[in-house]
Amino acid sequence: MLSKNLDKAKGQYQIVAIDELVPKEHVVRSILNAIDFRFIYDEVKDLYCDDFGRPSIDPVVLFKMVLIQYMFGIRSMRQTVKEIEVNLAYRWFLGFDFYDTVPHFCTFSKNYERRFKDTDIFERIFNKILNEAVSCGFVNASSVFIDSTHIKANANKKKKVEELVKVETKKYKKLLEEEISEDRIQHDKKPFNNKDDDPNDNIKTITKSTTDPESGEFHKGEHEKLFAYSAHTACDKHNFILTATVTPANIHDSVVFDDVYNKVKTKFPEIENVVLDAGYKTPWICKQILDDERIPILPYKRPMTKKGYYKKYEYVYDKYYDHYVCPNGEILKYSTTNKDGYKEYKSNSKTCQHCEQREQCTQNKLFNKLITRHIWTNYLDEAEIIRHTPLWKELYPQRSETIERVFGDAKEKHGMRYTQLRGLKKVKMQVYLTFACMNLKKLAKWKKIRAEITSFIEKTSNSFTFFKKISFQN
Question: Model pTM?
Fold first, then answer.
């Protein structure tokens, strides 16, 4: 039967509570039950004046507004305010009634510039939500998954300039120099005088955006060249994000690993396994993890050898005599240890000159083959041994279900595929708030499930006790 609704209820008045109009299963209800947002007052109390100026907009309302933006993947604060004006669930979440005026969309940005810009308030909010999940026993940090994803910057990729910049000194440089000196002395070589290093060796040319100078040029695989930021992230087995660091996208993952790893191991000293992709397979990273008595879970990394040439693994290293043996049985003897920490092994040019397999080995004009071996290669070898254990086969495939899933959800559901903001600090704010929202949603869901299970067990227990009592009386 055809029925028609001729807008008969459009002008009617009804007495109704806003709480009754918010669906019982709406995510904002679970979130409010999961955490008490009044902790924000303590976090921001030093940023407000107690006895001077006009009354401010409630900071809890401000942060709840921006959480709504990143929770539901709304593209801007302007659009978020429009959504709050018409969405009863959002109004209820903020504590507004039907007629309360929603703050102007520029309110948060003004407060950011005047109060929050140079603080770590967003990281503290992220940590507070994470700590709540830890206290509930939801976080399992025995195995940590670390990776990065790029965030497309709000910058025109055609507006760029070339610029000379100074390369940052590696954090492990001093330790490496000491071990290089020891290795050279053992081989009767003179240690390097590092004071005589050419300062121009630490200068490189980069492409810089004129729209957002703090972003970095990103190019990987089939991706087009663009300006972006990188969110270096660690998560646990249950996809709770444990920490994050934001950098320009032209900084390699292995360079930022130290910051991420140190932050996460400080928070969670119980870490046993660190799961990484091939981009982190460097001697220093393996050394760091193994020296901490933890297990690095790293994949196979194919050799970067040209097609048609012998692979490096086809040259056998003899640890006892400290030399390599080529596929033709000739010896490559130790020559020197360079400033980058690589031992150099060279073949005899007179022998190689008449070798039938030389074209598959080298095209060196001096007819000798050079192979390098880092002084920390034994740590890489140990990581390679771990790759063949059942533990590796159990944990490494979980990357697709953990850290990759985190990045997928952040981009598809929370708007982190690109940023409308400019500047490293603002992008860092977006990343921390996005990850805080993701942890908050999972925390709310798991708390709700736990409450339902507890309620069911109590009801079942009470029913069992009642029937047992009746049976005993009979």
Answer: 0.90
Residue-wise burial string across 84-121, b where 16 or more C-beta atoms lie within 10 A, e elsewhere: beebbbbbbbbebeeeeebbebebbeebbeebbeeeeb
List alpha helices for 112-252, DSSP H.
121-135, 173-186
What would the pLDDT profile of 170-197 be if each residue is shown by its tens digit? 888 889 999 999 999 998 889 888 765 6
Give the DSSP letter of residue 196. Answer: G
User: Amino acid identity of 437?
Assistant: C
Across the strands, what pairs with 207? 162
Among candidate residues 24, 438, 28, 13, the one with its CA nearest the CA of residue 236: 438
pLDDT in tens, 100-152: 899 999 999 999 998 898 899 999 999 999 999 999 999 999 999 999 999 99
Q: Which DSSP string do the residues of 119-137 spell out, in sequence order?
A: S-HHHHHHHHHHHHHHHTT
Which residue, 298, 245, 220, is CA-closest to 427? 245
Which helix (H) or strand (E) segment holds residue 288: the answer is helix 283-291
Return the amino acid letter for 123: E
Which H or E run includes 69? Answer: helix 59-71
| Helix spans in 323-473 (H) | 349-353, 358-361, 377-386, 390-395, 403-413, 424-473
d(CA 235, CA 402): 7
**Could you read off the pLDDT of 270-323 as tens digits, one per residue?**
999 999 999 999 999 999 999 999 999 999 988 888 888 889 888 999 989 999
- Rounded distance, CA 72 to CA 67, Å? 8
H-state helical runs in 299-423: 349-353, 358-361, 377-386, 390-395, 403-413
Q: What is the pLDDT of residue 55?
A: 81
Task: Point out which residues pair with 54 in neighbouring strands.
Answer: none
Looking at residue 63, the DSSP 8-state letter turns out to be H
d(C-alpha 135, C-alpha 144), whole Å: 18
What CA–CA distance (Å, rounded) separates 223 from 188?
Answer: 48
- Beta strands 143-152 and 226-235 are antiparallel
Nearest alpha-carbon partner for 439 in 97, 35, 19: 35
Distances from the Cα of 252 to the Cα of 178, 230, 410, angstroms: 25, 9, 21
Environment class of 15 (CB within 10 Å of its CB; exposed 0-12, middle 13-18, buried 19+):
exposed
Return all residues near 58 (Cβ < 8 A) that are at least 6 apart. Answer: none
In order of 30, 103, 255, the CA distances from 408 in angstroms are: 23, 32, 23
Give which of 311, 331, 204, 309 is closest to 255, Cα–Cα. Answer: 204
Task: Give me 112's structure tokens.
Answer: 């950011």
Tokens of 218: 């990103």
At 417-456, the pLDDT tens digits run 999 999 999 999 999 999 999 999 999 999 999 988 988 8
CA distance 86 to 83: 6
